[in-house]
Amino acid sequence: MERVIYLDNNATTKVDDAVIEEMMPYFGQWYGNPSSMHSFGGRVAKSIQEARGRIAELLGCQADEIIFTSGGTESNNTAIHGTLAAYPRKRKIITTRVEHPAVLSPCRQLEQQGYEIYELSVDRQGRLNADELAEVLDDNTALVSIMYANNETGVIFPIEEIGALCRARGVPFHTDAVQAVGKVPIHLKDSTIDMLSLSGHKIHAPKGIGVLFVRRGVRLVPFILGGHQESGRRGGTENVPGIVGLGKAAQLAQQYLNDENTRVRALRDALEAKILATCPDSMVNGDRRNRLPNTLNVSFEYVEGESILMLLNQFGICASSGSACTSGSLEPSHVMRAMGVPFTAAHGSVRFSLSRFTTQEEVDFVGEKIGPIIHRLRELSPFVKSA
Amino acid sequence: MWDYTEQVMEHFLHPKNVGRIENPDGIGEVGSLACGDALTFTFKLGPDGRIADAKFQTFGCASAIASSSVLTEMVKGLTLEEAEKITNRDIVERLGGLPEQKMHCSVMGHEALMAAIANYRSKGKVPAAAPKTGRIVCTCFGVTDDEIRRVVRDNNLTTVEQVTNYCKAGGGCGGCKGQIEKLIEEVQGEKVRKLRSHPEPQPRKLTNIQKIALIQEVLQQQVRPAMRAHGGDIELIDVVGNRVLVAFRGMCASCKLADYTLKEIVEAKLHEYVSPDLTVEEETDTAERPAAGGEN
Predict the structure, then answer these.
(1) Is B217 inside any structural domain?
(2) How crowded is residue A246: how many other Cβ atoms within 10 Å of its Cβ?
(3) Closest among A222, A243, A242 to A234, alpha carbons compared
(4) Catalytic residue at A325?
(5) What pLDDT digit, counting tens, does each position of A44-57 carry?
(6) Which residues pair with A317 in a beta bridge?
(7) pTM: predicted TM-score of the whole model, two decimal places
């Protein structure tokens, strides 16, 4: 494939060149173990502290509230299992039907072990109703875990309102913010969030590094046991290059936050307008007024997602679909189903997710190609009664 | 990313015989929007009794489109007796292979061809979308025991995973995997029987408390996952003697199961796992739940 137009940034992102540059010395040159009792290792420990500081700055929190993990999935698992272990008498978790599998899977396993899992519903626009949370919060609730913004639709949830409800009941509140960080301003110091998950590879750092923010004073039992790293909160020798890279990526994310919300948002809006104008029977999934600036989820009725992706792929255009046509999961995504998107539209949903590297020219190119692709597939479809 | 062969990509990017023949001799429709793929196949016979023209319309992934396209090429020039001998394996071979998880696309092509031939032979009495025969095993995708037996036989399948790849059965909530295993044993006999040994559930006399607990367990493990996979849910309201009162929630309307009411599916599961004496009743107004243990 020659040309790649990458509009799948909610899946993963390009590692920024500046991030790679910052990481490089920590492979061959500064490879010491930060826990070692020599200054060669001690130097590395300093770099980790520096990175921790940069991330704390992006999130508006204290450096000692940052725990490095292997990524979003580990952060979510740690928040869930670590909180339950801290409150062994409480047997209920509240989450949503549209969470990422990194939250839903551990919850469903816990349900098998006797925990009560309450999944809040969303409306047709993918919006959460905080009143429903208020109704089900009780003294038996060990944890509320609700994503900051949805990975498929980009819909942003009323996180502070949710956090305030939890705080009033004295229930710890965790949010999976892997899609929100770098796109939405986050200031944890003045927030009601107790724990927050962040993933490196969603913000132009490499895969395999993430963060769990744990507010000072929030009780959490370590999930991965081993050495005394991360002040005894997460065992295992630190992923030093990853941590250093994430530090740089956090610094860049802060710099580009405005760009994401102005230039990238305008590109996304232009792509959206072009698609709706050139593809009849298409519609945007998710609340358009309250969405991540980079995400666009469109349903094309009567055509199937994989076919659309394969034809986009012919032009080097990378996107993803809410419909995974494998025999293991032939059904449309749980997010589309929870929103009540009709089957006719859910199977043909495509997500375009932009980044700060996306250009006007790329968006124009995709906007030109998508119309003919949809038209062509509809000609094949038995559900279109065309002339 | 799927590892498709050149032939699959060729038929996907440049599909042959797209469309619908006007006044066809035979028409077959399989699949549905709800299931994620669907195919309409039409053919016309020539004066020599051979298939002179065949066309398709497909909603589905690349391999579904390629399977349909290649099928229309394969049947042209054949007599119906010859066309009938085509199996999904032949479609797969002509495509140079399909990923295991996409085998159901070839099965769908084969089913559409069979449906179209049946439609012709019955002079239109068998409708294009022929009613399914057999008993529904996979409630998520509406796959019957007859269909499962056929893919097992035609493709010499020995595992549940294979069956899922070939006809989707078991690919939703997974609650029917035990039944699929039994069907494989039934078709394949000794070849697979010694691979596994599952004790038959023993019929037993249940106390009331055991019965309610078991009903809860079956609903939780066998029924709820299927319902949730479709964006719905079920709640046990009460058990009064052998009457099981349940309430359905969420959206379960727009799927294939419309023919089979949810009540029947739940009842079948409870008969199988708890007791054949149970009847399921749907509680429509959950605002007025009967008091626990109350006879009404």
Answers:
(1) yes
(2) 34
(3) A222
(4) yes
(5) 999 999 999 999 99
(6) A5
(7) 0.82
